[in-house]
Design a protein that fits this description.
Shape: globular
Order of helices and strands: EEEHEHEHHEEEHEHEHHHEEEHEEH
Strand content: 25-35%
Number of helices: 11
Distance between the termini: 41 Å
Radius of gyration: 22 Å
Length: about 400
Amino acid sequence: MAKLCENGICTPKGFQASGIHCGIRKNRTKKDLALIYSEVPCNAAATYTLNKVKGAPIAVTKQHLQDGKAQAVICNSGNANTCNANGVEIATQMCALCADALQLASEDIIVASTGVIGEPLSIDPFATHMQELVTKLSYEGGSDACEGIMTTDTFKKEFTVSFLLDGKECHIGGMAKGSGMIHPNMATMLAFLTSDVAISSEMLDEVVHEVVNDTFNMVSVDGDTSTNDMLCMLANGLAENEVIQEKDAAYAVFKDALMDICTEISRHIAKDGEGASKLLTCQVVHGNDTMTAKKVAKSVITSSLFKAAMFGKDANWGRILCAIGYCDAQFDINCIDVTLQSAYGSMPVCVNGAGCGFDEERAVKLLSEDEIIIFIDMKQGDAKATAWGCDLTYDYVKINGDYRT
């Protein structure tokens, strides 16, 4: 099982990382530049935002990953490098500076940015501090790198998972940033995964997309799909397992491990939603088909009215049924049961599409916990899905009301 782990991305063999303040952020106490480096070339795969407005780093990274290879990732926070006339030029120069300092080819660098959209980004901070960033690379540098990519996040999201393949101990490490502008249709805000597993670039691309669809694509904080969403994964093969080249038993083990770590990262991204006080998990069972189950789960956790009710500890189950009812899928609403759950206990609030009596005072206590499960039994098939979100609080408006200024 995936577990919280400082330096998560450095757990797999052969990976180092670093994070520094280079001057993009005005606050000198906050790191704003991160680097992940593998001692040997890696097979690599990535997924990207479906927003028509895309950050310049995405265009550069897509080009660099055409051969399915990479050896390093550089990422800045504080500026998204999006909607800038010279954005691609800046992202390309970032890669060139990094490659020169690491003695790699520019095409082996993945580049990412996060922060304010539409603000000019100078190459000067990167040129001035690139050597420092590379010099500080270490096997203990994962947490510094994680700090370097954070924006409005309130805590670091670092995880690792260990497993066996061909008798070899293997690892996947991961870190992510994400708190607001989160409703991904590919991956998440920014997520970086490392592994020492030997797997072909073709199989890595397959498994990344499969897992992303059931994890990061099932997260929503505010319904806004970012311009810079990216997930990338590097696998360097240093665990020395037999190379995974087809969807066999080893592929299944690797996929399960990747699912574990991506699920944990997704949960924590939702839990750290801007201004959030509660993690909301919507579990749907017995759906007509998987797509219907996914749509129902996602519809509930994206409903602003429902999210506000959870903040107010109001067991307003009608808002749940309403959100289920307007999702684009075919099913019988009169079959659906809804149960609210938390560490306090469990409480049915709807049976066969209609309300059932429940104790309002007990409901308030149940909804006072910081993790709430909305369990929906559709009673119409065998499909299931899970989505993660958070409540909608006053602080979300405060954070985003003056985000740029």
